[in-house]
Amino acid sequence: MSVEAGASWSHGDLKFHGMSLSGIRTCIAMPELSLAFDVAQGFPFSLNLKHFFLSHGHLDHSAGIPYIISQKAMTSQAPAHFYMPKSLVDPMQRIMNIWMEIEKHTYEFHFHGVEENEIIPVGQNLFIKPFKTIHRVDSLGYTLFQKKRKLKKEFCNLSQNEIVDLKNKGVTLQDDLETPLVSFTGDTQIEFLDQCDWVKKSKVLFLEATYLDERKLVSSAREWGHTHLDEIIPRLDTLECEKIVIIHVSSRYPTPEATKILTAKIPERFKDRVVLFPGR
Ligand SMILES: [Zn+2]
Ligand SMILES: [Zn+2]
Q1: Ligand in closest contact with the CA of 137
Q2: Which CATH superfamily is domain 3-32+116-276 in?
Q3: Ligand whose nearest atom lies closest to the CA of 139
């Protein structure tokens, strides 16, 4: 299989397809929801998606934007929506202006500058909320939430008629529950975890770990705005996630070696929860 085809991974109903390799390419798509986190160079598996959430402007995460826009036009698809840190909108627009000048063609696309805690609907009862991350440039992570309405506890024992009565009287019978399903960090230092509680409760957390062992020190990871595996391990106890999916591992660790290091370093009780994303 070619690298550009990406790889699939799933947890329950949550299905993903993509690839992630530090400095080279990162794009994690949820094809059934027509969305992707980052776009890498704009690989075929993402060309039919509607919503793209950009963590930051580094080329390994964002270079595919113009290509995706052009492919959408070529195949007569509706213009795509790209969500990104606000400071990125103007430079990306300028890049598109130059490319439209080169191609002598006007493209249609939607660039949305977003901020932490904004609500972005992506389907029925589903929305994305950005959170702050810490990198060398403006950056955001994103969480996919599911909204559900649940009858308030105090009304659970009432009959159907009693509930209808209360409803007619205008009583609020239900609580809105918002469950964080998937969080995606993009590139970041570990301290983003201290600022955003819901990320730690996400069912699935895509977490960057650029370096895994002593060949690159924690200080070096931090200098470049990244996370080292040695910083994640002491925090595993604070993460309630069912799965922690490690992405953005440096190419200095081929997959068999990265897996070996994870197996050796991750404490036994977390072993079934921490996985390396298979697409690289
Ligand atoms: Zn990166
Ligand atoms: Zn980066």
Answers
A1: 2
A2: Ribonuclease Z/Hydroxyacylglutathione hydrolase-like (3.60.15.10)
A3: 2
